[in-house]
Design goal:
alpha+beta, Endonuclease III, domain 1, Nucleoside Triphosphate Pyrophosphohydrolase, 3-stranded mixed sheet, 14 helices, 7 strands, 43% helix, globular
Length: 333
């Protein structure tokens, strides 16, 4: 228990003041944990506050239209998360409230082992250890373990280790302390070992292997794809198209056209460039001004009020920012 005491003492003194740490409401904790997947904490804060202002309760989220939820989520990416949030909210409301049991949470769409452990421990004091990327890095160094952290066997073993370290009396604070340690001290590069509250327990520090851990085997190289988006404006309105509801990706989201979608388009000057990564694909976008005599079939003119409320794709938002258009309506990415 010496490990837990040292870690928790450090956490209480040095933890960051994040809005989701000021509540035990399982709904708000759930929203934060889903948003924090693939996104840095500081970047999540404005989205978290805006989302909860629009949907302050699980009932409000359950009763919202999918387009409203996607619009509030727009800019965070991985939009299946937003759809699953709405579906899960509907199931929670139908069941009469948020489940308190870890296994019951795991039955809900979009709630995996990590999210269920986080909600169960933080909201309800359940004795379930979390295992995210930060915690895996901490454990790999504590154990001086050079196994591939991308392997399922390693994750299973690290889960057992994390469970063994867990303070059952303060599981929520302990889990957050482990994640905070990985996020602020036990960093991927240039770890702050001199500031670590559990440095004496770290086998990698003793063996001089901290910088080599954790080990994650290389994935296939990214494929680079160049693409042009066309920004066409008319009387303060923007030409765009909407992905169909049955699209395999980004269903229901609004996009800017590319040159191939607009026969006869007149291309003008280059307005900007940006990058966008989707799994193994690195897209290099060029944004160009354009003009068409009329809106082609399937395209629509969007005004400022539309842009404020519709689910606009991340690439469309980045394109508008790169071009310096519609300031104040496109959230910072």
């Amino acid at each position: 228990m010496k490990f837990a005491q040292s870690l928790l003492g450090w956490y209480l003194r040095h933890r960051r003041d994040l809005p989701w740490r000021r509540t035990r409401d399982p709904y708000r904790i759930w929203i934060s944990e889903v948003m924090l997947q693939q996104t840095r904490a500081q970047a999540v804060i404005p989205y978290y506050e805006k989302f909860l202002e629009r949907f302050p309760t699980v009932e409000a989220l359950a009763g919202a239209a999918e387009q409203e939820v996607l619009a509030a989520w727009s800019g965070l990416g991985y939009y299946s998360r937003a759809r699953n949030l709405r579906k899960t909210a509907q199931e929670i409301v139908s069941a009469g409230g948020f489940p308190r049991d870890y296994e019951a949470m795991r039955e809900l769409p979009g709630i995996g082992p990590y999210t269920a452990a986080a909600i169960a421990s933080i909201a309800f004091g359940g004795p379930h250890a979390v295992l995210d990327g930060n915690v895996m890095r901490v454990i790999a160094r504590l154990e001086n373990d050079s196994s591939d952290i991308g392997a399922s066997q390693t994750r299973e073993r690290f889960t057992r280790i994390a469970q063994g370290l867990l303070d059952p009396k303060q599981p929520g604070d302990f889990n957050q302390a482990m994640m905070e340690l990985g996020a602020t001290v036990c960093l991927p590069r240039a770890p702050q070992c001199l500031l670590c509250p559990v440095a004496r327990e770290c086998r990698a520090l003793a063996e001089g292997t901290v910088e080599q851990l954790p080990v994650k085997l290389r994935k296939a190289a990214q494929e680079r794809i160049e693409q042009t988006l066309v920004l066409i404006e008319q009387d303060g309105r923007l030409l765009a198209w909407q992905r169909p509801s049955d699209a395999g990706r980004m269903a229901g989201f609004w996009e800017l056209p590319d040159g191939g979608q607009l026969p006869g388009v007149l291309l003008g000057k280059t307005l900007g460039h940006f990058r966008h990564t989707i799994t193994r694909h690195l897209y290099l976008f060029t944004v160009r001004a354009g003009a068409v005599p009329r809106a082609p079939r399937g395209f629509f003119w969007l005004g400022r009020a539309d842009i404020r409320t519709i689910p606009l794709s991340t690439t469309a938002r980045k394109a508008l920012r790169a071009a310096g258009r519609f300031p104040g309506l496109v959230d910072k990415l």
